[in-house]
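Q: My hope is that you can spare some time for a protein that puzzles me. Underneath my words sits a plain record pairing an amino acid chain with its backbone structure tokens. Those tokens are not coordinates but codes from a learned vocabulary of shapes. Thank you; the sequence and its tokens follow:
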Amino acid sequence: MITIQSSDLTENQLAEIALAIQNRWGVAAFVKMHEIAVVDDDEDFPLEGPGKDSDENFEKGFKIIMERLKMDGAFVLEKVGRSKFRLLLVDHESLPTWLEETAKPKKLPDGVYECPHCGKWFDDELLLSMHTKLHYII
């Protein structure tokens, strides 16, 4: 499992990044407590596999994600452990506009409950409660 921590981003903003990670590598990525947890049980994921320069592959791939999200000028990815990274804000002036849009919580329709970790919608509080427990297990 890989974790990407950031105290400079909201959970909604981290969810956008987690979605980009899912789309790029086809792995599960969850947001919990100001970090993204990436479950890398697939052999094709860049941190696994024999003969791969795994750290470099993940960092290169994440750099491409940051470029596509227009975050590369504002943030830098710093390695803090074997599979732990920190996303640091280095330039407030070059923040992309989508970060401002996702910083504020959106108004939900009546009768819809949203997971604060990943943004998934549920029809009732019981389903949301069961789903939310999954974030703390992983």
